[in-house]
Write a structure and sequence with these properties.
The chain is of the alpha+beta class. Among the domains are: 190 residues, P-loop containing nucleotide triphosphate hydrolases (Rossmann fold); 152 residues, no CATH class; 31 residues, no CATH class. 57% of the residues lie in helices and 18% in strands. May be involved in recombinational repair of damaged DNA. This is DNA repair protein RecN. One of its GO terms (molecular function) is ATP binding.
């Protein structure tokens, strides 16, 4: 519950602080005094977006801070999920600088707006007049019924999830598989358009039977084939120069080695020189042998030349076609084409597998949807009767409430479409709330719904912003008593303009304007017993209440 609220430098509020009662708190004040401004500040505390135009003093930052006692509300998992330290006292704070920069804190830890919003959703339920109009929305009605039926609470039979959460996760799985299935089908349709072309290119490369290093070898071989006669001539001349001419090198080296050998007896260095000369002679003989072998093998071969030329031309053509320079790149393209063609051939298998999984998930969706729907429908009669009894007690004894239901295709919320039909008068046919309910009837319906749901939610604090619109008299007294009963399990903060409700509060806060020389500011104070009598008398009779008004105020307070 909220134990302390501070608002500084916001709209007409220079500085405000209140310490609400743990039960029923009533806030009253003249129109425009700043009651709704307080709600705007609380909205910022719960994650609403900020506007620097709302700063009281444009040169100072706005600070809104709420201190909550959450020791009894089992919110540890919520904090753990957001990686926040849990403490029995939770402090939410928003700061808006004059430059427009907004900062949010949970227990002095900086957080994003999304995080403070998630934490705030578990601490306060702020009900504005706009929310009353939401009651006419069928999706809002379905959410109300789920809370009433217990579909949003953890349940061991739903795998320690709520029935609604269990269904939502199953539905999300199904939609993911459905999306995957459609993508695969689209991929298959697109791939089939390209399959013939890719298959042609792949077959062409397969038939080429390319080898990684063959281009360089073929280009070298072609050079030799095209210059065979010249190569053979030069090899012959080289052999002759080494071994056959009158002044060949090998004969000269033999003579040199012999002469140096005769000198070996005079010095060991001549022996070393002779050895080196003989080694050179051996190397030259090897070179001569290899030259002779190469010369014998070198022959002009027009047929082989043609074959090599054709092979290279085919390689060059493929390289130009695929805009690459090497066989390695062609082999990479070939591998890629194999994968593309193979993936198309494998798509049928993937599609069939995904279709099977999708169909199984759909059946699970239908199963979970039926469980959810059965629980909803089982609560219809009880919901209708309880809501009827409450609104009857609030001055609509002839009201009729009927839940219209029809089955629909699975959606994120199940297979149910519901509409709460209402008629306030005897003999009138129930119609949709938008058509049938007036403003005051809407207010009483919404309060009754909130009353019904209060025991089924774990929210520490509920805020009502003039939910008593359109009611008066004895009905207003009953509304106040209904709020008192709700306040036995939830902290209630209610902004009201009715004296019958104001008299029901444990704490009564009064919001008023104070005029200064330069501007007007809003203030709030907790009224003592005498001040409460005066304020309620003013609410009854206006600016100059009579003695009867004061007496009526005392009677309301005594009730």
């Amino acid at each position: 519950m909220l134990i302390d609220l501070k608002i500084k430098n916001y709209a007409l509020i220079e500085q405000l602080e209140m310490h609400p009662s743990p039960v029923l708190n009533i806030i009253t004040g003249e129109t425009g005094a700043g009651k709704s401004i307080m709600l705007g500040a609380i909205g910022l505390l719960l994650g609403n977006r900020a506007d620097t135009k709302l700063l009281f003093n444009q040169d100072q930052k706005c600070v809104i801070e709420g201190v909550f006692d959450i020791s009894q509300y089992n919110l540890q998992e919520v904090f753990t999920a957001e990686d926040l330290d849990f403490d029995n006292t939770c402090i939410l704070r928003r700061e808006i600088s004059p430059s427009g920069k907004s900062r949010a804190f949970v227990n002095d830890t900086p957080v994003t707006l999304d995080v403070i919003r998630k934490i705030g959703e578990n601490l306060m339920d702020v009900h504005s007049q706009h929310d009353t109009l939401q009651l006419g929305d069928t999706s809002y009605q379905l959410n109300i019924l789920d809370i009433y039926a217990g579909n949003t609470s953890l349940d061991i039979y739903a795998g320690n999830l709520s029935y609604l959460k269990a269904y939502s996760e199953t539905y999300r799985t199904y939609k993911k598989l459905e999306s995957d299935y459609k993508k695969l089908e689209d991929q298959l349709a697109q791939s089939q358009k390209e399959l013939d072309y890719h298959t042609f290119l792949l077959n062409e490369l397969d038939e080429a039977n390319l080898q990684a290093e063959e281009q360089e070898a073929l280009e070298d071989e072609l050079k030799q084939l095209e210059n065979a006669e010249d190569i053979k001539l030069k090899l012959t001349q080289a052999v002759q120069s080494l071994t056959e001419s009158d002044f060949n090198i090998t004969s000269a080296l033999k003579d040199t080695a012999y002469l140096i050998g005769q000198l070996a007896q005079f010095s060991s260095k001549y022996e070393e020189l002779r050895t080196r000369t003989e080694s050179a002679l051996i190397e030259l003989n090897d070179i001569a042998g290899e030259l002779e072998d190469a010369e014998r093998k070198t022959e002009a071969d027009p047929q082989r030349t043609l074959e090599v030329q054709e092979r290279l031309n085919m390689i060059y053509t493929l390289q130009r076609k695929h805009q690459v320079q090497t066989i390695a790149e062609l082999l990479t393209i070939q591998e890629d084409l194999q994968q593309k063609v193979g993936s198309v051939l494998n798509l049928d298998t993937a599609i069939a597998k995904t279709k099977k999984e999708m169909d199984a998930a759909y059946q699970e969706v239908l199963k979970k949807a039926k469980e959810l729907s059965d629980r909803r429908q089982a609560s219809f009669a009880k919901f209708e009767q309880e809501l009827h009894d409450l609104v009857a007690d609030l001055g609509m004894p002839n009201a009729r409430i009927v839940i219209q239901h029809k089955e629909a295709q699975p959606s994120a919320t199940g297979t149910d479409e519901i509409n709460i039909l209402f008629s306030a008068n005897k003999g009138a046919q129930p119609q949709t709330l938008v058509k049938a309910a007036s403003g005051g009837e809407f207010s009483r319906l919404m309060l009754s719904v909130k009353y019904m749901l209060a025991d089924k939610t774990a929210l520490p604090t509920i805020v009502f912003d003039e939910i008593d619109t359109g009611i008066s008299g004895e009905v207003a007294v009953k509304v106040g008593r209904m709020m008192q009963q709700m306040a036995q399990k939830h902290q209630i903060i209610a902004i009201s303009h009715l004296p019958q409700i104001a008299a029901q509060g444990d704490y009564h806060y009064f919001v008023y304007k104070e005029d200064r020389e330069d501007r007007t500011i809003s203030r709030i104070k907790q009224l003592n017993e005498e001040e409460r009598v005066n304020e309620i008398a003013h609410m009854i009779a206006g600016a100059n209440p009579s003695a009867n008004a004061y007496q009526s105020a005392k009677e309301l307070l005594s009730l």
